[in-house]
Specification:
Strand order of the largest sheet: 2-1-3-4-5-6-7
CATH architecture: Alpha-Beta Complex
Bound molecules: inosine 5'-triphosphate, magnesium ion
Mean pLDDT: 97
Helix content: 25-40%
CATH class: Alpha Beta
Order of helices and strands: EHEHEHEEEEHH
Low-confidence stretches: none
Largest sheet: 7 strands, mixed
Number of domains: 1
Structural class: alpha/beta
Amino acid sequence: MITFDQLVLASHNAGKLKELQAMLGGHVRVRSIGEFSDIEPEETGLSFVENAILKARNAARVSGLPALADDSGLAVDYLGGAPGIYSARYADGLGDAANNAKLLDALKDVPEEQRGAQFVSVLALVRHADDPLPILCEGLWHGRILFEARGTNGFGYDPLFWVPERECSSAELAAEDKNRISHRARAMAQLKQRLGL
Ligand SMILES: O=P(O)(O)OP(=O)(O)OP(=O)(O)OC[C@H]1O[C@@H](n2cnc3c(O)ncnc32)[C@H](O)[C@@H]1O
Ligand SMILES: [Mg+2]
């Protein structure tokens, strides 16, 4: 079993960091990549797995500590899985509001029954920068894309993501509830099991 007393979270996304910290904080001392570097590695992979590993290795390299990365995104059925690994960059780096506006526009004539989507999270944990055996866990969260934004909690695409099991948008969920049922929560549950946490 892998043991360590601290771990770097390899994310520059404040919303994501908050969620990962809430899920892990009680179990291990979590540090943030921002303590070590402000430079975001280029996400050159073609899959969530490749990008998660790349971010984790980079964080382990700059910190000298074990590192955990999350690569995540929204896969929309009608768009053939887009924006997928390009979710953060969907509107060419203009940010969450522009990403959401672009998605609403892409689906403006698409009826409710064809608006299925899933959030994907892949977590990669490396013990050191050259770790030959990263631990990989994935979580999916099925829902639908709304016709307009609802709610102000969370981050990213949360205001557009309808959560059938709660009958509200992801941005209308309390943080603790999202952290129990989200794609990231599912991936994290597996990771904790693998680590014996
Ligand atoms: O790479 P890091 O530094 O972790 O931060 P990032 O924001 O660039 O993260 P990703 O590359 O993994 O891109 C994921 C994007 O998918 C979206 N996303 C992922 N998880 C989400 C969630 O729980 N709620 C809403 N949007 C989410 C959001 O727009 C993210 O920016
Ligand atoms: Mg990123």
